[in-house]
Inverse folding.
């Protein structure tokens, strides 16, 4: 069963869809976070697959996270940290549902949503059962520091890949080192990354698995940033295997 579910986070409204398995009782859950300028439906296939296999799945739109977002907020106010707050609100809501087995909640994120998922996990480490990351964009802060050597060089609004970003997107993570802020999570992490990714270097994920105490990296040969149908199928099956 699939239905729309809006989750409030203060003044903000987070739009998403919840996919429920057949039957009654408590089920494990997985929360899926989209990448830059993506939306909840980027993970429809995964949600249907996980629900069919006995998991509650919730995919949502980050506030201001896309030109097509159905959540409230402007893209010029979005940062990786506002997205982290969105995910924490979603996590707390889904974990409190009566049908959720709160001991078995997984976080799943792709690209920028993978970075955000990793950051949110550190704040709910005792409550998250495990983490799945597709080509997590751990390189975002470093990339923008290189692109804008000084704060003065950053325009008030930047149109990047069709999405308008406010200056604070860049300023907020200026002093932020991704790898100093992940790795506290002691439970299992699965990272899936293609070896032909030209947006997020595979080396980012290779470094991450040296920082997490219990992490596995699956490298998909010939896959780029965003998997092919065959690569996506393999990744999805590996993700389910990991959760089971």
């Amino acid at each position: 069963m699939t239905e729309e579910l809006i989750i409030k986070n203060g003044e903000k409204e987070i739009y998403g869809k919840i996919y429920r398995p057949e039957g009654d009782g408590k089920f494990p859950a997985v929360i899926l976070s989209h990448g830059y300028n993506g939306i909840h439906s980027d993970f429809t296939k995964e949600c249907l697959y996980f629900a069919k296999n006995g998991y509650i799945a919730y995919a949502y739109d980050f506030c201001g996270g896309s030109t097509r977002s159905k959540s409230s907020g402007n893209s010029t106010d979005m940062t990786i940290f506002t997205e982290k707050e969105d995910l924490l609100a979603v996590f707390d809501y889904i974990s409190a549902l009566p049908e959720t087995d709160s001991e078995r909640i997984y976080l799943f994120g792709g690209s920028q949503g993978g970075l955000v998922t990793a950051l949110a996990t550190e704040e709910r480490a005792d409550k998250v059962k495990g983490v799945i990351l597709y080509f997590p964009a751990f390189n975002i802060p470093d990339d923008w520091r290189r692109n804008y050597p000084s704060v003065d060089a950053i325009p008030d609004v930047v149109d990047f890949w069709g999405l308008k970003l406010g200056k604070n997107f860049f300023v907020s993570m200026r002093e932020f080192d991704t790898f100093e802020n992940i790795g506290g999570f002691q439970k299992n992490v699965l990272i899936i990354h293609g070896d032909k990714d030209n947006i997020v270097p595979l080396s980012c994920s290779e470094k991450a698995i040296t920082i997490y105490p219990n992490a596995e990296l699956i490298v998909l040969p010939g896959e780029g940033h965003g998997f092919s149908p065959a690569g996506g199928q393999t990744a999805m099956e590996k993700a389910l295997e990991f959760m089971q």
